[in-house]
Structures are given as structure tokens and as C-alpha cells.
Amino acid sequence: AIHPLDGTVYIFAQGAAGGTPTLCQSSGAYTAFSGSTTFSVVSMAGLPTESGQAYSAFGIGPDGRLFLGRTTGTAPGNKYVAYSDDNGTTWTGVDTGVTGVAGDNIAAVGSGGTYDVYFGTAVSNASGTSGTWSQMPTVGSPMQPHANDGATMVDPNNSTVVYLTTDVAFGMTPDQGQNLVDLNDGIVAVQVNDFDMDSGKTYGWLASKAGIFHVRDYNTPSVVWSHSFPMGDGAPYHAIALDPSDATGQTAWAGNNRVYHTTDAGATWTRPFAIEDNGYQGGQFDFYSYVDALAVHPADPNVVFVGVHSPSSGVRGGLFYTEDGGATWTQVSTTIGAMTYNAEVTDLLLVPGTGSDATVYVGSEYVSDGTTSAYGVKVVDYVAGTGTTFTNDMNGTGGLITNFGAADLAWNAVDGAVWACGQNSSGEPRVYRLASGSTTWELMPTAGLPTSPGCTAITIGEETDGDKIPFIAIGEQIYYNPSNGAGDDETTGSWVADPVLAYPVGTAINVLFWDELLVGTDAGFYGHSGTVSLPVELVAFDATPDGDAAVLTWRTASETNNAGFEVQHYRDGAWQARAFVEGHGTSAAPQAYTHRLDGLEPGTHRFRLKQIDFDGTFSLSPEVEVTVAVPGAYALGAAYPNPFNPQTTFRLTVARTQQVTVSVYDVLGRRVALLYRGQLTGGDTHTFHFDATGLPGGLYLIDVTGEVFHATRPVMLVQ
User: Fold this and answer.
1) 686, 653 in Cβ contact below 8 A?
2) Architecture field, domain 634-717
3) In this structure, are residues 603 and 634 in contact, taking their beta carbons and an 8 Å threshold?
4) Where are the domains of the chain?
5) What is the pLDDT confidence band of residue 189, given thresholds at 50, 70 and 90?
6) pLDDT in tens, 525-577
7) How do residues 582-594 score in pLDDT, each as one tens digit?
8) Is the distance from CB of 426 to CB of 453 less than 8 angstroms?
9) Taking the CA of residue 562 as centre, how many other CA atoms within 13 Å lie in the half-sphere pointing to its CB?
């Protein structure tokens, strides 16, 4: 910041919680900066500090008053301001009385005397002194638009106008904080977190940072949206669930730090549950805990499950349910024998049973901090009037699945399979499927997926032939796994990244819902019309060895606009194009392809196909492997490049494990380099590099000596 009276520059650096920040001032005005300009530290000796709180905002008033800002008290606490009129020698602390986190900066506007000070959602019209702070807007309705605690900026051409962030995106106050005006024409960022819709696709509910939205007449030309903040609560909403038994679509449950219930499309709300009740449920939760999932029983609307998640350290989530429409609540016991488990709930999937009974699948974030842990998908069996039974273990085909955090769950109503997506502890995307009637989760293939980030959302959609297939979100890209003619719930093959389903870089995709494809992101709510039409239905892909060659064969059930296949070979840590095989364009008949790759070195080789559409759209096949045997005791490949300068590379494979020495000699028989001496594993291909930097040009011999063989290869160094 620049001092308005003397032009000196101040640089602010946040300090540790409970300590003082660092504030430096230049030795001269910014207009006279030179190589001799220095900075000195401003005194903080009298600055009021508080355990656990750090000053995070700074600003200067038009009279030169220095302002620092933080929060005070137990979360959520109030905004706290300290100011100094003598350049840091003494400080005066002020509890603004305005609840919320600290803003990003402090902005002041006016001239001399009394002026306005802005700090997040707080404003003082009397130079920031005690007793003069209020929450914006000070006169108008605080709910739409709803200001949040981001940056505030004064218009340089009109000091009565101050710009600020809102839950929708961007707003302003034209009258010193009395009213707020929406400035989001074409720039809407409601941060959609959850969505639910009736089976007839007529009514829907949406939970966002900007409140709750209700839509009716969705499949008509006259769609109607309405908006509300339940009981004036402006905290971000993370969960929404409609009541499937209400054919009018007016009944829903919404969750942020509390649970709200409406039966009249959001005109009025009640609050049957809150995390902070009973001392944060006996201290299990804290201010940062929130309701991340809701589930309503379709046959008994009085049965509702609530999942709690907390970003705080440790495992501080939980699961509650009501059997009387929210009048009373019971926490699901997670104690099994002598062990008590828990879950950082990310999603709930309620599968109805007989009558009011149900099985509830509970997605949990992965947590492992050395003291507490949570992971995977838990199962709660609910029996009406009797209670619940909790199962912690997530059984996989290879044993217990513990290295997995579930972000989202989906159910295929056709075959009853449950799907879960998320990531492992390394941040790699993972998708699991639990077949109907099974107790064993199956890990889905990862071919076609990136190695990071993790998967954030999943839904079950359709292809044009009606087959049910999974759609998942990873980063800003949506992937789907085609059925390849195999029917519903494909469990093999490669994921497809359709460019049509790619969002701008940096977009966070929070929820997927199938009515065609609906996508909720941190920047709004979007729809993709039409089902997925696949350019090629690949039904088989195999590789077989033939001497030093690999013979690749593949078949398609049908093709649409198929330009062809790029044959890719994995070598030297990357996929390399080896050939292109033309496709059959558009064909409803099965097609068969064969391609031979000769001259392969001994060892294991990986191949895949890149199917390319005429418009450039492509998808990747699953990978296949083939092992080329060592023809004799050894196989020494040709060096490349040759001639070379100054480096060349060659590969060696031995039939059996043995001691091997790899050297390089000049034409006089002098060894100029020892590349390797030790044991080589039989059947593996080993790569060697010869760097001839500093050697004269000419002929050299690569010499390889094993226990049962000796071989040489000439290489030419050119200068």
C-alpha cells in the first residue's frame, strides 16, 4: 500500500497465529525510488495479539492511519481491527461485532475527518473506530446478492462506489455499504455443490454457495427457477435431497452447517437439525463441520439420513438419521466389538429395501494422519423401528480396500450395481463397482485416465443404444466408459475423454446428474443434450508374438466416422506412434484388423490403439502386452545413433541371469569406458548409454562379455 500523505510504500507479510505480522516502510516516496532506497520495519510493540489468531489484512486510511485485520474469539468469531495513528508506536484494537472470517484486505475511502473503512463484509462509516462497524448491506436485504469476505476495492474514478465479492461472483455498493448491487451480467459463479431431480425430470433442487435454487416445469419451454436462503442463512449449501414421495416436487431437505426442510418449494423453511446443537454434538464436531450429504427414503419420507464432513484435522465426521421427519435424531453407532470407526462423509446412497428398510452406502474421504483414519465406502443396514447395523470394511477382490477415499456414489437402477469414485492416497483416480448381491468391490480399469487428480463426481448415463455406462469427472474433464456392445455397466476397456465434455482449465466439477448430462461446477450449472454416440465399438484387441515381431489383431462391432487407428508402442517411458491403420468410416457391420510390428528387441512390449474420428476426436484402447523371447544366449541391439556425437544408446538382453561386463574399446585395444559390471536379470531388456565427450573421433567397439557369451558392436564417433 502507498501512504496517501508522503507517498512511502508499505509491504505487509502475515505472521504466525498468536504473533505479530511484519510491516515494512520505504525510506522515500515511490516517485523517488532509486538504488539507495531502503525499507525499515514498522514497530508492532503495542499491537494486540490473540492466541490462535493471525493478522491477515492491511490497509491505510486517507489520513495515514494504519489498519490491520484478523478475527477474534472462537470460530466463527468476529472481525477484529487494530489501527495506529503514529506509524505503529501505539495501537488501538476494535472488535467490529461483525461475524465471519477476515477479509483479504482493508480499503478506506474519503478525505480527512471521518471516512469509510471496508473489511470483508464489514463497513465503518466513522474511520474504523469502536462502535461504528456494521455488516453490509446496512440498510437493504442482506440475502441477494449476498456479500462474502473477499477483497474490497474502491473505484478510482468514483470513491462512493466500492466493489466486492459476492456468493454469485461480483457486486458493488454505491452508497457506503447501505445497499448491494449485483454486477453479474454474464459472469455468474454460483458454485454448484449438489443437485437432485424427480424421476419424471419435472422438478429439481440445487444446492450452491449462493443459496438454494428450485426448478419446475423443467422439460417444458417455460422453465421456472426460484431462489431462497433458508431462514436467512447465507452459509454455503453442500447438500440437497428432494422427497421422492411428493409428486409436486415442493418438498426438499437442504444442508450447510445445518439441515433445513421445506414443503412449499422454498417459500418457508424449518430447521430440524444443526451441527452446533448440544455443544457441537458433544464436541465431536467443530465450526468447520458441515452437512455434505442427505438421503430421503423414497417409500417413507419420515426417514432421512444426514452425513457430516469436516475439513479439520483428524476424523470428525458422522452419520445421523431420523424416523419421524426430523423431530428426533439418532447418530449411527460405528462401534464394532472393541473398535470404534468413523467416516468423513462425502456422499450417501440410499437403496430402498422392504417397506421402510434400506441399505445406505456411505462414501468417506481418505484420512490417515497417524492417529485417526477413514476411508472407502461404509455400509449401514437400516431396519425400521429397530435401528442400524454398521459395516466398516470395504472388501475387494484382493482383500480389504483401505487406500481409497470415496468422493461420490452412483446407483444403476437397471442392474442394481453401486459405483464409487474418488482417489487413493497418492491422488490417483479410482473407480469401484459393487455388483448387485455381491459383497466384493471390483476396481475398474484406469486405461485412458490421467494419473492425477482424483475423481470428484460420478453418474450413470446412457449410450444411444440405451446401454447404461458410467460418467466421471477428473479435473475439468468428463470421461465415460463405453459399453462396447457388452451391455450395461461395462467393467473393462478404456475411458474416453470427449472434447465436448471438457471444461475450461481450472474448473472444479462438483456434481454430475443424468437427465441427459447435467454438470454442476464452481462456475455454474450446465447441460449437455443428447446421449453419447460412440465413433467405434471396439470388441476385441489382442497381441501375439511371432519371432522378433508382434502381431496385433482387433475387431469392431460398428464404426461411425472412423478415420482409423494409430498403433502406439510404449518405449523409453513414453507412448510412440508406430503405424496408422485406416478405418472403415461409418459401418454397421463388424470389421477386423491386423497389423505386424517387426524387429522388436527381446523383452516385454506394451501396445495400445488410438482411435481417431474424422473431426479429430479420439479415444484410447486398453493396453495389451507381448513378450519377445531371447533367440539365444543374448541379444545385443544396434547402437543408435551411429555414427554419433557425443552420445549413443544400445540395449542388451540375456537369456538367463548372469554376471556381465559392458565396456568400450578404441581400435588400439585400450578400454576407454566401463559402462557396467555386475549381474543382469535374464529376460529383461537393459539400456546403456555411451558418452564419448572428450574422446577423439574414430571407430570404437562396444564389448559385452557374459558367463557364456561374448559380443562386440562397432560405433563411429564423428567430430
Assistant:
1) yes
2) Sandwich (2.60)
3) no
4) 8-182, 399-533, 536-628, 634-717
5) low
6) 888 765 555 557 777 888 888 877 889 999 887 788 889 999 999 887 788 99
7) 998 888 778 889 9
8) no
9) 28
Cα–Cα distance, 50 to 65 (Å, whole number): 22
Is residue 197 within 8 Å of residue 218, measured between CB atoms?
yes
Q: Could you give the percent of the chain with pLDDT greater than 90? A: 51
pLDDT of residue 184: 66
Q: What was the pLDDT predicted at 485? A: 45
Q: How far apart are CA 423 and CA 452, in angstroms?
A: 9
Contact 200, 167 (CB under 8 A): no
Q: Are 431 and 491 in contact (CB under 8 A)?
A: no
CATH topology for 399-533 is Neuraminidase (2.120.10)
Residues 6+ apart with CB under 8 A from 475: 450, 453, 509
Strands (E), 427-573: 429-434, 441-443, 455-462, 468-474, 477-480, 496-502, 509-514, 517-521, 524-528, 536-546, 549-571
The residue to which cell 533367440 is assigned: 631
347, 360 contact by CB (below 8 A): no
DSSP string, 161-184: -EEEEESSSEEEESSTTS--EE--
Helix (H, G, I), strand (E, B), or coil: what is residue 658?
A: strand
Does the pTM of the predicted model rise above 0.90? no
pLDDT tens figures, 474-505: 999 999 887 644 455 556 678 888 777 888 88
At 483, the amino acid letter reads S
Q: How many helices (H) and strands (E) does the chain have?
A: 1, 62
More confident: 161 or 14: 14
**Whether the predicted pLDDT of 48 surpasses 90:** yes
Predicted local confidence at residue 405, as pLDDT:
95
The gap between the terminal CA atoms of the chain, to the nearest Å, is: 59
Give the C-alpha distances (Å, rounded to integers) separating 122 from 95, 119, 190, 414, 557.
11, 5, 22, 53, 64
Q: Spell 441-452 as b/e; 16+ CB within 10 A means b.
A: beebbeebbeee
Same fold, 536-628 and 634-717: yes
Map residue 277 onto helix, strand or coil.
Answer: helix
Per CATH, domain 536-628 is 3.30.70.120: no
